[in-house]
Every structure is written in C-alpha cells, then in structure tokens.
Amino acid sequence: MLFASPGFLLFVVCVWLVHALTPRALRWIVLLAASAAFYAFCGFFAAVWLVFCTVITYAGALLLHKQEPGKKKKATLAVVLLMVFGLLSIFKFAGFAAQLLPSILGRFSGGLLLPLGISFYIFQSAGYLIDVYRGKHEPQRNIAKYALFVSFFPQIVQGPIGRYDSLSPQLLAGERPTADSYRNGIQLIMWGLFKKLILADRAAVLVSSVFSDPSAHGGVVSVAAAALYCVQLYCDFSGGIDITRGVAEGLGISLDQNFAQPFFAISVQDFWRRWHITLGSWMRDYVFYPLSLSQLFGRFGRSMRKVFGTRIGKLIPTLLASFIVFFVIGIWHGGSWKYIIFGFWNGMLITGAMLAKPLFEGARNALRIKEDGKLLYVIRLLRTLIIIGAGRILTRSDNVTGALIMFKKIFTSPKTSEVAAGAFTKLGLTNEDYIVMAAAFAVLIICDIMEERGLKARSFIERRHPALQVLLMVAAIAVLLYYGAFSRGYISAQFIYGAV
Amino acid sequence: MDKLLAILADIRPDVDFTAETKLVTEGILDSFDIVALVADLNAAFNIAIGLTDLVPENFDSAEAMDSLINRKLT
Lengths: 500, 74
Prior knowledge:
- The complex is a heterodimer of chains A (500) and B (74).
- By secondary structure, chain A is mainly α.
- Helices cover 75% and strands 0% of the residues of chain A.
- Chain A has 24 helices and no strands.
- The two termini of chain A are 13 Å apart.
- Chain B starts with a helix and ends with a helix.
- Chain B is an all-alpha fold and 74 residues long.
- In chain B, 23% of the residues are buried.
- The longest helix of chain B is centred in the middle third of the chain and has 15 residues, at 31-45.
- In chain B, helix 1 runs antiparallel to helix 2 (31-45).
- Chain B has a single domain (2-73), classed as Orthogonal Bundle (Non-ribosomal Peptide Synthetase Peptidyl Carrier Protein, Chain A).
- The chains are: A mainly alpha (500), B mainly alpha (74).
- Chains A and B meet through helix 13 and helix 15 of A and helix 2 of B.
C-alpha cells in the first residue's frame, strides 16, 4: 500500500474515526488491529517474519530480566540478537552472497524478497532488547502490547525508529487526539504529499532516465541528475516521514523527528546528525558508545597513545568505532559493493576530517578566515553538498561501474553543447515540470530556512485568521491534486534502500 | 567542580562550560566529545559511568555532570 495513494489515505481516515469513537482503554487494540490489517494487506508471508521477530524479542527480554548480570545474561542477549540480525542478513545479503558464490548460492537466493519494513522493526525491537538488558526499563509482559510497539503501522515501512520508553507509553495511553492534533496531522500529511508528489516523483523521472544509461549523457546533465537525486531522496524519504508523523499525530501520538534540514549541514558529520536522525542515534547508543567505551577499545587506545602520542592515540579508537558505524550503515542500506564503498567513503571522510582538524585550523588562521564568518559557512556548505552528492551518485547508480562512468563524464566531458541543444527536454520532463519543480523547491528551501532559524512554518500559518487558514488548506489541496505526479507512484522504501 | 571544569576545558577549550545548559541537546558536545569526556572522568574520579548514563540530561551542563559524578562517587 503506497503512502501517497487514495487507498492509504482512506484507511487512515477510517482508523482515525474508529480510534476516536473507541473508549480510551481499548484504543491501543484499535491501533494493533489497524497495524495487523495494514501489514497483512502488504503480504501474508512477510507477516510471518514480523511475528517471529516479535515473539523472539518478547521472550528474550523476559528471560534477560530474570537473569542476573553475568556471562549467561550476555550470552542470552547475543543469541537473540544473532537470531534477529541473522534473519535480516539472510534477506539483505542472500543476493549479494549469490553474486560472490553463484554456483553454490545462486539457486537458493532467487526467490527471496525483503519483507516490508524488516530493517526498521528489527532495529526497533533490538533496541528494546538491549535496553532491557541494560536495565533501562522493565520488559513488556503483555505480548499484544509489545506487538503494537513493534508493528505500529504508520512507522513500520520507513521509520522513524522508535524507542520503547518514549513510544510505547504513548501507544498504550489512548489519549483522545485534540482538534490541534488533527489539524497538525493533516498539515504534516499534506506537506509530506507535497514533497513526494510535486518534487520527488517528478525528479525521479529525470534521475532514472540519466542513471539508467550514464554513458549517454555529458557531465552537466550528470551533475544535474545527481543534484536532483539528492532532492528526490530527501523529499521522498522526509516526505514519507512527514506523512508517518502526521498520521500518528491524528492518533494523539508524537513520533521522533528524523530530519533536520540536511541541506544546511556544514560538514559530513553534521549531515549525518541531520539525516535519518533516529538511525544515527540508534547507531550511536547501541554500536558507537558500547564499542568506544569497551575495555577492548580502551586497551587499544592506550597502546595507540604510546605509538602516535596523546592526541592521535586518544582519537584512534573513537575513529575506529565511527568507521565501523558507517560500515554498518553502508551494508544496512543493502548487500552490494556500492553500499560497502559508500560506508567506507563516509567513514573515511569523517575520520580524515577529525585527524586533519589541526591542519584545517592552521590553514584558516594563516589565511585569516573568520571561524564564524559567512564566507567560511558558504564554503563549508558547498563542500558538504558536493561530497554528499558524490556519495549519492554511487548509491543511485546500478553498480560501481555505472558510478565510475558518471564521475568520468563529470570531470572529462561536460558537453555543454548537449544542454544548449535541449538535452533536458529529452529526459521525460516538460518545461512545465521544471517550472513546477523550481517553484516547489523554492517553497521547500524557504520552509527549511525558517526551521533552521527556529521559526516554525506551521505556527506562522496558525497565527493567521481561521478563514485564511481554510483558504490556504483548500489552495494546498488544489495544488496537490493538479500538480501531484499521481501516475508516477512507486514504493519509496525500495528506492531509498535498494529494497526495504 | 574545578577539576571537572579543567577536564572539560581540555576537551573543548572553545566552549564556556559555566554558561551553557544545553550542551548535548543543542549539539555543542558531539558523541566524540562525550566518549573522550567519559574516559577522562572515569579515570580522574575513579568512577564507572555506564552506557545507561549516556543521556542528554546527564551531560547538558557542567552542573549536571557534577551531579552525575557525585552520584557515582556515593
């Protein structure tokens, strides 16, 4: 079921209505039933793995809670985590393993389709399990209530990855949504649809046309396609999250933010703090901190200090942990060489920037460039956009060879004459499409600038006269219906991660 | 508190730790700083700051960190 489809929106309205009309104590059951119905609609076979993951982590958490701290408890955690991440790995990497060992594995991996949302519900339930192991909170004893936490329908497809201690109490509280909740929810859903249908789905046409045949286009067209792919990815992913958060708001539930104006990042590290925030914080809490602060890394750090001195020696274990995080994020996106290289690319950039920090500071001082000056800000902004765009070329290309062809074209064959001859009108988009995209992008950037400066676009609208608010809403619906690229729908999670 | 402020100044000399109250929430201290800080605090005060202690409330200000250290010492 597509998020940006009339069927899904009708489903949401029905769930909102039933939820509001149900007594408070039973509202969580409505949410569970809606989640089960949504998931079953997406495929019965896929639901088997969701049930498996739910039961295993539910039972594992109860067992962990009973066990005393020690080796046995650690072993229990390791076994359950191996089971759920093993399941994820089978689906994610079966195809990749078949590429490496075609004669042995090829025949077994052909029919494996990634179940909807499996990465998200496995990360969410693994986080719950680790928190119970750490004693952060008690385990949930009611399996149906736990199942709701794992499968809450708006977020299961593409996140945000929720934490048990903040999400589950909201799901179970059954608070009646207020008029503001519905208004905010509808606004968020419309904003998400705007990003997806007006921008992302249009950009996708040009992007797909260029990336499917990289050797046929010059450098200028390739750069434009890479830039538009960045816009497409951001609009589709963050638009989907807006819809998710909007649906949840109409149910009286507030989900975590997943994006914070990533185009305004001034370094790669800053970008990853603003992009897919809940995945980043998951990695920080469950991979980066445990590794960096482990005894093993501590010993490694002490030995590195003897070799490289205090500053570098102290940094090396942290950088190694950071490198591992990016490697994991890379392979989480999918089993393919391009994602492995993508992980290394980001890991190298961040570790390199940390190691070279004194050099950059020295150069800045020598050139007398102000740390908080506008010039440095713009340079950093552009540098980050270029680096991120280069990484996106790699992930959007069909394979590493395709990406290399594109890079070669960009540096050696810009073909400006191709642009003058109307190349952009032969890539599936009309002049009207470009005008609509440009106008929509301007709206998007203005809203992001407002958010970046701490001004909420939504509260700006709320301060207007009610009649004007209604007029704005009607105008927004008209724009969505008239300019939305409804016929170009596709399942976003598949293109964000290669597969769900 | 002075010992704590000296450690903090060593890790991030550019931050005024006596004034800031949203060090983690506003991203002034990043995860790299937190790791360096925890390692130094554990060594300097002979305490064991665990993974469950790594929440913004414990590191948002020097005062919060001081209170965390005192809790760990008792």
